[in-house]
Amino acid sequence: MYGHVEGLARRLKKGVDGVEGVEGVLYRVPETLSTEILQQMRAPPKDDGIPVITAEELAAADGVLFGFPTRYGSMAAQMKAFFDSTGQLWKEQKLAGKPAGFFVSTGTQGGGQETTA
Length: 117
Fold this sequence. Notes:
The two termini are 19 Å apart. A hairpin with a 2-residue loop joins strand 1 (64-71) and strand 2. Helix content is 35%, strand content 14%. By secondary structure, it is of the alpha+beta class. It has a single domain, classed as Rossmann fold, CATH 3.40.50. It has a 3-stranded mixed beta sheet with strand order 2-1-3. Belongs to the WrbA family. It catalyses: a quinone + NADH + H(+) = a quinol + NAD(+); a quinone + NADPH + H(+) = a quinol + NADP(+).
C-alpha cells in the first residue's frame, strides 16, 4: 500500500536478475480497497509499470517469491484474497515442484513479521 514491500521486491529482483539465464518479473496482487478508502489512508498511487497478477499467471512461472506486509501479525487482506483465488491451481497441482519463497515487512521491530511467516 505504501511502497515498502515494493521497494524490497525491487531489491530482490536485482538479485534474481543477477543470476545468469534468470529474469525476475514484478507483479502486484489485486487491490481490495476502494479508491476512496485508499485516498483517505493517503496511500500513494500504484506504479502502472507493475501489472496486477492473476492466479493463472503463477502456473507460467519457473519459481515465485511472494512479498507482503504484516497487518496485526498476519498477511495483508489483499494477499489473503489472492491466495484464496489460487485453489484450482493447488487442486490441479500446477505449482508442484516450483521453488517458492516469501518475504515480509512490518513497521516496527517485533511488529508481527515472525507470526506472519
